[in-house]
Design a protein that fits this description.
The chain folds into three domains: about 210 residues, 2-enoyl-CoA Hydratase, Chain A, domain 1; about 130 residues; about 80 residues, Beta Barrel (OB fold (Dihydrolipoamide Acetyltransferase, E2P)). Helices cover about 40% and strands about 20% of the residues. It contains 15 helices and 20 strands. Strands 1, 2, 3, 4, 5, 8, 11 and 12 form an eight-stranded mixed beta sheet that branches. Strands 16-17-18-20-19 form a five-stranded mixed barrel. It has a two-stranded antiparallel sheet with strand order 6-7. Strand 1, helix 2 and strand 2 form a beta-alpha-beta unit. Helix 10 packs antiparallel against helix 11.
């Protein structure tokens, strides 16, 4: 997982609080070298969170992009606003459309000698023009966002607005730079041309042959340490995993429900754990939260196992475990940032809660549809006390799960048989050609082990392993 360890501990040792003032500045370079899509957002968000946690001084976006999705662009701009240090864009070749908007959200914009920026009008995903009314609304919103991002940054607000809106005229003093009816695009030299009194560059902070030239100007030659990130296959995969979150959740929970309904532990339990693990993996790679939610989810699973295997019927452990599992799933999807207080607002919780609730509803509906095809009892029976029928608990009536005929519960006391399934400690035993739900008082037994009935509980026979 190439991007898992974004910032090596050795590389960032100097960036920890209390470092000497003469220590090299810590710089993280994040690539924006493809159409703006989820993988670019994920690597940016993870890189920024790691940088905040390690007190990095400067973030540089190494940009060469033709543009991309507007919603992802807004998410990237929001993420950049959370970084307390300096943010810089290096237009390595082009920052077109969404790339220009993202560059406008950084503190400084540097250019390679052949760099180009501009043409940021919103269009459909297919490349076609928007409906006139919709276009007007989006353009108005974008220009307002750009003005808020560009306060105190010279001509940036005017310039980016002229890149967004073909009907916007760009005039500085008496000089007309862009008439109405066309979108503005700038070369590196045009972006560095000075206007106004006192003179200042139109958009750029400088032109440099490479990133080293940019950082030499910002921090001084040799006075910085660079950590370069890259988009790896997990970031690319995560965009699909996060999109499928409700279905993955539903599949994982359904498998766990079926596992609780069948004796022993097998393929459904493994599949359920695997699918839920994929959910955590996808959101970890997406840069939302760390590994902590997975720890609490496993703790919840452990509490449910205690209820099922050790103290069935109390429901206290199961409810506590289910609460931890549900909460950890929501937690894994929250966009949390280092050093910032947790504010559980509607926008932050809406998507995680919706994903989890949809997954739970789908899993329960599928489980109920399959319930009549599943065997009676299993681990599930240890969690649910069924209604009494004809003066005898229905759980006792359901002890018999296979064979020509069943003996009365009291007639089974003292009889011997074999474990039809592994007992961990619950499962099934075979006595006189019939199968019954059973549970060991203590320990576990492999399938085929000789057993003797020592009692009858609410949810099955109580047996012991014969020596």
């Amino acid at each position: 997982m190439a991007a898992a360890a974004l910032l090596p501990a050795g590389a960032l040792r100097a960036a920890e609080p209390g470092r000497a003032r003469h220590s090299p500045a810590q710089v993280v370079v994040i690539p924006v070298r493809a159409p703006i899509a989820q993988p670019e957002l994920y690597i940016l968000r993870r890189g920024l969170k790691e940088a905040i946690a390690h007190h990095v001084d400067t973030i540089v976006l190494d940009m060469e992009t033709p543009g991309g999705a507007l919603d992802v662009t807004f998410e990237m701009l929001k993420a950049l606003e959370k970084f307390p240090g300096k943010t810089v864009t290096y237009v390595n070749r082009e920052a077109i459309s969404a790339g220009a908007l993202i560059a406008a959200g950084t503190d400084e914009i540097y250019f390679a000698p052949g760099g180009v920026i501009g043409a940021a009008a919103p269009v459909l995903v297919t490349g076609g023009d928007l409906d006139a009314t919709l276009r007007e609304k989006i353009v108005s919103y974008l220009k307002a966002r750009v003005r808020s991002l560009s306060e105190g940054k010279g001509f940036r607000g005017q310039v980016i607005s002229a890149m967004i809106d073909a009907d916007s005229e760009l005039r500085i003093g008496d000089e007309l730079l862009k008439p109405k009816g066309e979108l503005l695009s700038l070369t590196a030299s045009e972006a560095m041309k000075e206007y106004g009194n006192p003179p200042q560059p139109l958009l750029g902070a400088g032109i440099a042959d490479n990133l080293a030239g940019v950082l030499d100007r910002i921090h001084g030659a040799g006075n910085y340490h660079i950590t370069r990130l890259k988009v790896s296959w997990p970031e690319t995969l995560a965009q699909y995993l996060t999109a499928l979150t409700p279905l993955l959740l539903a599949g994982g929970l359904l498998c766990m429900f079926i596992e609780f309904k069948t004796p022993g532990f097998g393929v459904f339990g493994i599949a359920g754990i695997g699918l839920l693990g994929v959910v955590f993996f996808g959101h970890y790679i997406a840069g939302l939260t760390g590994y902590e939610p997975l720890f609490f989810f496993l703790l919840g699973v452990l509490l449910v196992a205690v209820e099922v295997l050790l103290v069935p019927g109390t429901m206290i452990w199961a409810l506590a475990g289910a609460t931890l599992m549900f909460g950890s799933l929501v937690w894994s999807m929250l966009d949390l940032w280092p050093g910032q207080p947790l504010a559980l607002q509607g926008d932050l919780l809406l998507r995680p809660l919706a994903n989890v609730m949809v997954g739970v509803v789908l899993a329960v509906a599928a489980f109920l549809a399959l319930l009549k095809y599943l065997p009676q009892g299993g681990l599930w029976g240890g969690m649910v006390l069924e209604a009494a029928v004809a003066g005898e608990p229905a759980a006792i009536r359901a002890l018999h799960v296979g064979g020509a005929g069943a003996l009365a519960a009291t007639d089974l006391l003292g009889l011997t048989g074999t474990a039809a399934t592994a007992l961990f400690p619950s499962g099934q035993v075979e006595i006189a050609g019939n199968r019954y739900e059973a549970k060991l008082a203590v320990g576990y037994a492999e399938a085929g082990s000789p057993v003797r009935v020592t009692g009858v509980g609410e949810f099955g026979l109580i047996v012991e392993v014969l020596a």
